[in-house]
Amino acid sequence: MTLGVFERGTGHEQVVFCHDPDSGLEAIVGLYSTALGPGLGGTRFYPYGTEDAAITDVLNLSKGMAYKNALAGIPHGGGKAVIIGDPSTDKSDALLRAYGHFVDSLGGRYITACDMGTAVPDMDIIAGVTRHVTSKSPALGGGGDPSVLTAYGVFRGMLACAEHRWGSASLAGKRVGIAGVGKVGHLLLEHVLDSGGSVVVTDVRQEAIDKVRTAHPEVDVVADTDALIGADLDVFAPCALGGVLNDVTVPVLRAPVVCGAANNQLDHDGLDAELAARGILYAPDYLVNAGGVINVADELHGYSFERARARADRIFGTTKQVLEHAASEGIPPASAADRIAEQRMRDAASRKGSAAEPAG
């Protein structure tokens, strides 16, 4: 196994490469910031076309985790990992163990978890060679499926948006459009229905739509995301792929509130300002979808669902803080969220620096 360090002017503390010829492992870990604590973030297993594409992804993802963890108020910095390959053909126990040794070699600076292409059984294998891993099965002290608290956190953020927009933390009588009803989207629609709201959904997978229709025949279905974006909604909740808010969709979006679970909802910088100019309240995705990372972070302290849920509950208050700061400063909520996260990281780095100074 060989290790190397790659530096690029992105503000990252460290980017580490791993190559293990025996198992075929090709992996990269990005650490954006450890000011608040060890970097925590999932491992994405994906067949990147080039190493540059993998590097770009790990840099973007690890930075996003730093901001998400800072806003969530958990004692962790931002880290993320990618394994280059097709998980359906390249994943093996040997490769996962080699990856676990790679994670362990970082001495706890990075703690891994599930992401696209990896699952709880994979984390259990990794846990056999390193303790710096979360998303384990309950049998190994893990918290199981984090989507439960991801959906709950988005719902709490949605209630905060409702209070800011309409003066009441309630979705009663509101119509919510959910694009993507996988695990998180399906759980979110149940929260909305339980709160007295109505729901309309779309999904590219017929099996997901069939599951919704069977469990909740009162839910409406539209053909695609474009139809949902153009529908008469109170809240639009993107819960599938990123980039759904772009130069084509933002001008025709009718919902006055956007609050969903999908990562990277804005296709490019500047769209948050365009949403604000149109009077649309946008809840930054990395703010409201932090329930999952809150769930896995709790594993490191002896997992308690009740404690993790209580921490996910705080997404309501943090969302209110971000929206109020944005309103008072006359800036988009995404900019306000960035400022708060950056200040928390700066304060933590300053405290660490002061603690490291020798006594005079």
TrEMBL record:
<dbReference type="GO" id="GO:0016639">
    <property type="term" value="F:oxidoreductase activity, acting on the CH-NH2 group of donors, NAD or NADP as acceptor"/>
</dbReference>
<dbReference type="InterPro" id="IPR006097">
    <property type="entry name" value="Glu/Leu/Phe/Val/Trp_DH_dimer"/>
</dbReference>
<dbReference type="InterPro" id="IPR046346">
    <property type="entry name" value="Aminoacid_DH-like_N_sf"/>
</dbReference>
<dbReference type="InterPro" id="IPR033524">
    <property type="entry name" value="Glu/Leu/Phe/Val_DH_AS"/>
</dbReference>
<dbReference type="Pfam" id="PF00208">
    <property type="entry name" value="ELFV_dehydrog"/>
</dbReference>
<feature type="compositionally biased region" description="Basic and acidic residues">
    <location>
        <begin position="339"/>
        <end position="350"/>
    </location>
</feature>
<protein>
    <submittedName>
        <fullName>Valine dehydrogenase (NAD+)</fullName>
    </submittedName>
</protein>
<feature type="binding site">
    <location>
        <begin position="180"/>
        <end position="185"/>
    </location>
    <ligand>
        <name>NAD(+)</name>
    </ligand>
</feature>
<dbReference type="GO" id="GO:0000166">
    <property type="term" value="F:nucleotide binding"/>
</dbReference>
<dbReference type="GO" id="GO:0006520">
    <property type="term" value="P:amino acid metabolic process"/>
</dbReference>
<dbReference type="InterPro" id="IPR036291">
    <property type="entry name" value="NAD(P)-bd_dom_sf"/>
</dbReference>
<feature type="active site" description="Proton donor/acceptor">
    <location>
        <position position="80"/>
    </location>
</feature>
<keyword id="KW-0560">Oxidoreductase</keyword>
<dbReference type="InterPro" id="IPR006096">
    <property type="entry name" value="Glu/Leu/Phe/Val/Trp_DH_C"/>
</dbReference>
<dbReference type="InterPro" id="IPR006095">
    <property type="entry name" value="Glu/Leu/Phe/Val/Trp_DH"/>
</dbReference>
<keyword id="KW-0520">NAD</keyword>
<keyword id="KW-0547">Nucleotide-binding</keyword>
<dbReference type="Pfam" id="PF02812">
    <property type="entry name" value="ELFV_dehydrog_N"/>
</dbReference>
<comment type="similarity">
    <text>Belongs to the Glu/Leu/Phe/Val dehydrogenases family.</text>
</comment>
<feature type="region of interest" description="Disordered">
    <location>
        <begin position="327"/>
        <end position="360"/>
    </location>
</feature>
<dbReference type="InterPro" id="IPR016211">
    <property type="entry name" value="Glu/Phe/Leu/Val/Trp_DH_bac/arc"/>
</dbReference>
<feature type="domain" description="Glutamate/phenylalanine/leucine/valine/L-tryptophan dehydrogenase C-terminal">
    <location>
        <begin position="144"/>
        <end position="353"/>
    </location>
</feature>
